[in-house]
Amino acid sequence: DIQMTQSPSSLSASVGDRVTITCQASQDIYNYLNWYQQKPGKAPVLLIYDTSNLETGVPSRFTGNGSGTDFAFTISNLQPEDIATYYCQQYDTLPPLFGGGTKVEIK
Amino acid sequence: VQLEESGGGLVQPGGSLRLSCAASGFSFGNYWMSWVRQTPGKGPEWVANIKQDGSQKYYVDSVKGRFTISRDNAKNTLYLQMNSLRAEDTAVYFCARDGSTCSSSSCVEDHWGQGTLVTVSS
């Protein structure tokens, strides 16, 4: 199985800040990497697919980049509604495993 | 796109449960579908998926031989039959649509239901 290592596990930032989350795959997954946002008690919501493609309706302050084994997810201009846990997920091979998550909080 | 899970509840170890997922707002029969579960405080875990016509099914190793995924395209409904349940199967179970963006092995889960809680305990 391809393991996904996500960091940090949590972060605290101010409104308007730029925050970056990283995700490392245990082997090459090309660009088959997704990012999801999950708020408490809710289902995950797809934000970015194929490393950098924004899902329809997702604000442009969310971006993703990377390739191979190293990927990054950035929220520029952090907003109060961005408080959530974010997960990366590879879908190059089955099972499509998720990272451990990054909980984003406001200072 | 709407996905609504049902069938969760409290069951004893070794027991069985069948989850259902009613789909609407899209052509259900045109999409692979998945089940994903999540234990509180942990990341989601993909459980199984099924091809449009039900001819191909894949499972995570921890549920192979115990869980069976199936679908009824006439009823726009996805199922997960769970047998020989263990405490470690306790989780919220989500159904998800596998969208049109795919690798050679799987597709992006682009829409999720709100989940149904399964608790395995004596």
Using the CA coordinates, give the radius of gyration of chain A: 13 Å
Q: In what range is the share of β-strand residues of chain A? A: over 45%
Element-by-element helix/strand order of chain A: EEEEEEEEEE
Helical run tally of chain B: 0
Structural notes for this entry:
The complex is a heterodimer of chains A (107) and B (122). Chain A has 107 residues and is mostly beta strands. Chain A has no helices and 10 strands. Chain A has a 6-stranded mixed β-sheet, with no helix packed on it. Chain A has a 4-stranded antiparallel β-sheet with strand order 1-3-8-7, with no helix packed on it. Chain A is globular and about 35 Å long. Chain A starts with a strand and ends with a strand. Chain B is globular, with a radius of gyration of 14 Å.
Which descriptors would you attach to this protein?
A: 107 residues, mainly beta, six-stranded mixed β-sheet, four-stranded antiparallel β-sheet, 10 strands, 0% helix, globular, B: mainly beta
Give me the secondary-structure topology.
The complex is a heterodimer of chains A (107) and B (122).
Chain A: E1 4-7, E2 10-13, E3 19-25, E4 33-38, E5 45-49, E6 53-54, E7 62-67, E8 70-75, E9 84-90, E10 102-106
Parallel strand pairs in A: 2-10
Antiparallel strand pairs in A: 1-3, 3-8, 4-5, 4-9, 5-6, 7-8, 9-10
Chain B: E1 2-6, E2 9-11, E3 17-24, E4 33-38, E5 45-50, E6 57-59, E7 67-72, E8 77-82, E9 91-102, E10 107-112, E11 116-120
Parallel strand pairs in B: 2-11
Antiparallel strand pairs in B: 1-3, 3-8, 4-5, 4-9, 5-6, 7-8, 9-10, 9-11
